[in-house]
Design brief:
Blueprint lengths: L5 H11 L1 H9 L7 H8 L3 H13 L3 E7 L5 E7 L1 E9 L2 E8 L3 H13 L1
Antiparallel strand pairs: 1-2, 3-4
Helix pairs in contact: 3-4
């Protein structure tokens, strides 16, 4: 858990953004491209790219490289966020963030447990 401070304020501000929340909801079950997220949010690509960067900085979103059948590459994004808990205490505000383990890390961990 993190105690109240600038980092928590940044997270709260980010989660207060309707488009950021839409991105997290829309990428929860399926990775999506910026174009798809832009359509779902009703926002321009530059706004979505800025939010995607901020969400990645907070480790709430992961990036994947995709290959089109025509050979073009593009990125998709998937949510890592499972749950956010905000507690108001005598010492201030505490925020707990539960994140999903990225698939590559999960595979590595399971392989090491199996072979170790």
């Amino acid at each position: 858990m993190q105690s109240a401070g600038d980092v928590d304020e940044e997270l709260l501000t980010l989660l207060d953004d309707e488009n950021a929340r839409t991105i997290l909801v829309e990428t929860r079950e399926q990775a999506r491209s910026v174009d798809s997220l832009s359509d779902r949010c009703g926002a321009d690509d530059s706004t979505i790219y800025r939010l995607v960067d901020r969400l990645q900085d907070r480790e709430l979103l992961t990036e994947h490289q995709e290959l089109d059948p025509d050979g073009n590459h593009y990125k998709t994004y998937a949510a890592r966020l499972e749950r956010v808990e905000i507690q108001f205490t005598d010492d201030g505000v505490r925020i707990e963030v539960d994140r999903r383990e990225p698939p590559a890390d999960r595979f590595t961990r399971l392989y090491e447990e199996f072979t170790g």
